[in-house]
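Hi there, hope your week has been kind to you so far. Thanks so much in advance, here it is.
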Amino acid sequence: MPNETPAQRPTHYQPALSWFATIGGAWVFVLVTLGAFTTTIGAGMAFADWPLSNGSVNPHGWLEDIAMFAEHSHRLSGTMMGLITLIMALWLWKSEPRRWVRQLGWSALAIVIIQGLIGGKRVLLDSLAVPGFEMTFGQMLRIPHGILAQIYICALIAIATALSRGWIEHSMAVSKTVRRIGTMCIVLLLVQLTIAATMRHNYAGLAIPTFPYSTIDGHLLPVFWDYRVVLNFAHRIMAVILSVALIWFAFKLWTDRGATLMMRLGASTMVNLLALQVLLGAHIIWQLREVHITTGHVVVGALLLANTFWLVCLTYRDAIETKNDIT
């Protein structure tokens, strides 16, 4: 019917839209990698203007200077991410029958716009002092910028998952216990990533310069405490809690009768990413924040969130589709 609205059409697998959403979900990790690298080498203020870089979309010398390259590449990849999200939101609005998926598209678009504005204000307000704080207001904006990036990743993963053939054509009936454990893991991951972003932008990554112990004498607790040490120690404690929770979640998926082979493989990938993340975290301290290891730690953390969130989405598949049944 020519005048048929998206909500009146049956849900079916749309390969082109699904692949486009998947590409968007992959491109976000290019953006995260460049952002992590830019922060690690301290290149966030390589250009003092925004949205242009030194007044240009192709600033002189940016391919020869590592700081300029990192920051400008991050800006260009962010622009591309915005365009991908805009196209995806419009495409969903035009052809997707499920209202909740269309709303996810608009939500992702809103987040990427806010992210761009926060990133721009971080540059433009870099010199604005805040009484009582070491960081300027612009520098403070790096923290919500990093946190919101994780929410954005989750939104993209949710959209790509909901558009996949497996989601649309197959039931995934796992137990409520598995869903609850998975949800708890996502909450813990977001708490950990919030602590990590706060620690990272307060230059507290080496506030406790030894690992696995907190002192060179082998004590578990630091001898000296300040807010940087508190952030670092909280990050370590959360890593232990999160490790237990994620392994528990993986075990439940491996043994649940309703879990698919893909979910079990995803659980194995999650545990491997967890092990790699812990190893990278240790090497950050042992190698004094070596750039590539530190950048890798941020990227693997985002991958771990994405993988876990994808698994949790799958566990809720039947409940979501039953409740929202083309509304």
In short: The radius of gyration is 21 Å.
